[in-house]
Design goal:
Layout (H helix, E strand, L loop, with lengths): L21 E2 L3 E2 L2 H17 L19 E6 L8 H14 L3 E5 L10 H11 L5 E5 L2 H9 L7 H6 L8 H5 L2 E2 L2 E2 L2 E2 L2 E4 L1 E4 H7 L8 H13 L3 E3 L7 H11 L3 H10 L8 H15 L14 H7 L2 E5 L6 H9 L5 E4 L13 E4 L1 E5 L6 H11 L2 H11 L16 H10 L15 H15 L5 H17 L7
Parallel strand pairs: 3-4, 3-5, 11-12
Antiparallel strand pairs: 1-2, 5-15, 6-7, 8-15, 9-14, 10-12, 10-13
Helix pairs in contact: 2-15, 4-17, 9-11, 11-18, 17-18
């Protein structure tokens, strides 16, 4: 599930031993070096393309780009390995003079992906391209370290990168520049175990908030845990985003992000957090949900828990579980809004994407890879094999997928019509207060109102530093 493992994130101010404002083997990255990196991208692309009529860059000719690209994708599993093999073959056909190598090495004991990324950056031996979340709350730290390449010139010259929706590009924009290529369109409904619903006599998804509350009571009375939250640091934020969309909607969050509406004392901000508290007190989510004592996926598949609110990709983990366990079946619904005046709105947006190392010696080849990963050919693999969606135009009917995922595609095809996952549209330091505050709220160390004041304080700092998102 997208974002489920985001508990070990890169931190500002040089945590993990990496000082802010350095790159490579610790040498300072000056404005001159940063400008040189941008110039290298422009020169690499210009060298492989000619100006088209009207002054627009012409598409880069595949035969004009040569080199080697070392790419670190998300962990390669038995499910994803066939997909990546096809990507390697397809990329070789599209860009015959570029040699693509995938790093599928495992992490060391106690090592997170961000630990490994920081180590590669510090030693000057990072990958040319890596896959990792690219919205501001994640990418800001790498931008501060001058570790990633600005992608604006690539968007102007590469045919498939041009197809990326403008709203998606905006999600990876900081200080007026675009620092990554967004990929995984996220979607946050309430997933449910169909067999559990059948067993307790639930015939249809709730259509009002009162019906949603009654559903929780029915499940608990039947001896089933209605919902659970995975132990990952970001997971309470998934539920919070789901509930917030039903209280203030997409427009309400945009008021907070872009229109100077204040977080502190905000009724919707407070009530969404209070909803989590209320669910915990009713026993609808366990009181110790921040421990690792629960196997949330295992309990969901076996029916010990009925529902799971999670913002992420298209449910590839659920599909893998269904294939391995024929008795398991699942579906989803968008929860009713607590504010009856609002239409049900799924939390969503973007999570993972791709970044290019600012010190790569294979700039044009790296850009070629990113362009191919956003191509219609790659999109077919993303959707049909991994149940993921790139933010480029597509038609759900063009793909052979299970019925549940086809319904998912129909919901996300509009992209911009979905609501937000708060975690990925806020500044980097703000998200720490957001996540850790929700954990403290669930542990009754902090009230929702106190938390809203903490959010506002951090927002004011981010605004002063010019780090708040722009529409």
């Amino acid at each position: 599930m997208g974002g489920a493992g985001r508990q070990n994130q890169l931190r500002p101010h040089g945590q993990h031993g990496q000082p802010t404002g350095t790159s490579g083997a610790g040498a300072p990255v000056t404005r001159r070096r940063l400008a040189a990196g941008g110039a290298a991208l422009g020169a690499a692309l210009a060298g492989a393309a000619c100006a088209a009529p009207g002054g627009e860059p012409a598409p880069v000719a595949p035969g004009a780009v040569a080199g080697k690209v070392l790419f670190w994708p998300s962990p390669i599993t038995d499910l994803s390995r066939p997909f990546w093999q096809l990507i390697q073959a397809g990329f070789k056909g599209a860009w015959p003079n570029v040699e693509l190598t995938l790093d599928d090495s495992v992490l060391g004991p106690g090592q997170s992906r961000d630990d490994k990324l920081l180590g590669g950056l510090a030693s000057g031996s990072a990958w040319d391209v890596w896959q990792r979340d690219i919205p501001p709350s994640y990418q800001q730290v790498l931008v501060d370290k001058n570790a990633v390449l600005s992608m604006d010139e690539a968007y102007a010259s590469m045919p498939n990168l041009k197809r990326v929706f403008p709203w998606a590009r905006t999600r990876s924009k900081l200080s007026g520049k675009t620092w990554g290529v967004p990929h995984g369109v996220e979607f946050g409904p309430i997933w449910f175990n169909k067999n559990v619903f059948d067993r307790v006599g639930v015939k249809e998804a709730p259509k009002t908030w009162d019906q949603f509350l009654a559903l929780q009571r029915t499940l608990k009375s039947a001896g089933v845990l209605p919902m659970n939250i995975a132990a990952a640091r970001s997971q309470p934020g998934h539920y919070y985003s789901v509930f917030l969309m039903g209280l203030i909607g997409k427009d309400g969050l945009e008021d907070l992000l872009w229109r100077d509406k204040r977080w502190d004392g905000h009724d919707g901000v407070i009530r969404a957090a209070q909803t989590l508290v209320d669910f915990e007190r009713q026993g609808w989510i366990p009181a110790d949900n921040r421990t690792t004592a629960y196997d949330v996926m295992g309990d969901f598949v076996t029916g010990k828990q009925a529902m799971w609110g999670s913002v992420g990709g298209g449910g590839s983990a659920f599909e893998a579980a269904r294939r391995a366990n024929p008795a398991f079946d699942y579906d989803f619904f968008i929860p009713p809004a607590q504010d009856a005046k609002l239409k049900p709105t799924a939390a969503g947006g973007l999570g993972n994407g791709f970044s290019v190392w600012a010190q790569t010696k294979s700039t044009a080849a790296a850009i070629a890879l990113l362009d191919y990963l956003m191509s219609p050919e790659a999109q077919k693999g993303w959707i049909e094999q991994l149940f993921q969606v790139a933010p480029v135009p597509f038609k759900p009917e063009d793909y052979r997928v299970p019925d549940v995922f086809r319904k998912w595609l129909g919901t996300v095809v509009g992209g911009q019509e979905m609501g937000y996952n708060v975690s990925v549209v806020v500044p980097a330091k703000f998200v720490d207060v957001y996540w850790d505050g929700l954990a403290d709220i669930l542990n009754e160390k902090l009230t929702p109102r106190q938390w809203s004041a903490d959010l506002q304080q951090q927002w004011d700092v981010a605004k002063k530093e010019g780090r708040v998102p722009k529409p």
